[in-house]
Amino acid sequence: MGSKYPRSLRGCLPLWALVLEGALILAFFFFTSYDTSSKDQLLRTYTVFQDVAVMAALGLGFLSSSLRRHGWSSVAFSLFLLALGVQWALLLDGFLDQSFIGKVVIRLSSVQRAAMSAMSVLISAGAVLGKVNLVQLVLMVLLEVTAFGAMRMVSKQILQVEDHVSMMHVHVFAAYFGLIVAWCLSRPLPKGAEEKDQTATSPSLFAMLGTLFLWMFWPSFNSALLNLPKEKKNAVFNTYYALAVSAVTAISMSTLAHPQGKINMTHIHNAVLAGGVAAGPPCHLIQSPWIAMVLGLLAGLISVGGAKCLPVCFNSVLGVHDTCGVHYTFGLPGLLGGVTYIVLMLLQAHWARNPMISYQMLIDTGALSLALAMGLVSGLLTVPSSGCWILGKIIQEKQGLFANKIIPFTIPTFLCM
């Protein structure tokens, strides 16, 4: 029995992947070197690095494995995208760094930042799962990681935003990047799209395992880029409080929303994590646990409400098929966290009687708006040519393959049809 994948994909994926990997190896050969100083504290950094790696590989890898038709492929795709994205993000961050003088100095902290940047692709992939093939996802890795790196560079060097805050905007950026790509690929919404969202019992156990990994290690992710001990401690505690309350809220509201009082596992997979997403930007500024708990409560309510209401609105009105619900898992809670950060910074400036309150509000609002705008614009540019999209659709319809093949959204993948 032959492979169920088109011959074009089987021939194109190894070619593009191996050529790209060869180019990355050459780039590492000419432009990178290891840090030989003793300033990079390996033992302290490696623990956090392990936590981030577990979140990315196991947490986000298994999170979307509950889908009946894309369970195992989502796990394999996530590992492939993470491995490729870390390499490109490490080079890109080094090239965009102000201290770059011909060689990218590799430290464990820079690998950690690259892994956190590559997680943006894993988040976005949840929105387009089932609509793209692996060749298209390879190009999506390069484009999205590049756009996210450029956004962080503008935030840090022009807007003077903290490194931690610019990284915590990854949820907003990645969610809306994935949504705009899904919108372009869902026009018109294909028949049977809702059937792709159906879950299976056994894979749901693996998805719950991914949720638990993310739930346990999210405090490490939110505190990874903070240097001051007090801020790091606040980040860990506040993230845990927010996660705990969002978990209770998600389970309670899921039972309330079900006609028979049952728990919807889709709500659990998504809303349980909403507190950690929302706590990301302001976690080091919160000085009292009740604030973090209120934030987790609001995030859980928003996520469960979004899971109940937004799919109908998105599918029928806007024509966006968000496969894994990244909008109400990462997008809306991320916006909530960004707005909370702005409010806390304003209060902090007001209490300190800082005359630059309006300027501070403008900068913080601009950083959040930049993440949202860059996600939307770069996602739209990932579909660079509407003419190519239409031509690909016409060819597929004439060949009778429209129902079985994926509409290409980049010129290289169009050539692989």
The gist of it:
With 417 residues, this protein is an all-alpha fold. It contains 16 helices and 2 strands. The protein has helices at 7-31, 42-63, 71-96, 108-128, 134-157, 163-168, 170-185, 201-223, 229-257, 265-271, 274-279, 289-318, 326-351, 357-381, 386-399, 411-415, and strands at residues 32-34, 104-106.
Largest sheet, spatial ordering of strands: 1-2
Radius of gyration of CA atoms, rounded to a whole number:
21 Å
Strand content: under 5%
Low-confidence region ranges? 385-417
Helix-strand makeup class: mainly alpha
Distance N to C terminus: 22 Å
The major pleated sheet works out as: 2 strands, parallel
Helix content: over 70%
Please report the number of helical segments: 16
- Order of helical and strand elements: HEHHEHHHHHHHHHHHHH
Average pLDDT over all residues = 82
Give your account of this protein's structure.
This protein is an all-alpha fold and 417 residues long. 73% of the residues lie in helices and 1% in strands. It has a two-stranded parallel sheet. α5 runs antiparallel to α14 and α12 packs across α13. The chain starts with 6 loop residues before the first helix and ends with a helix. The C terminus is likely disordered.
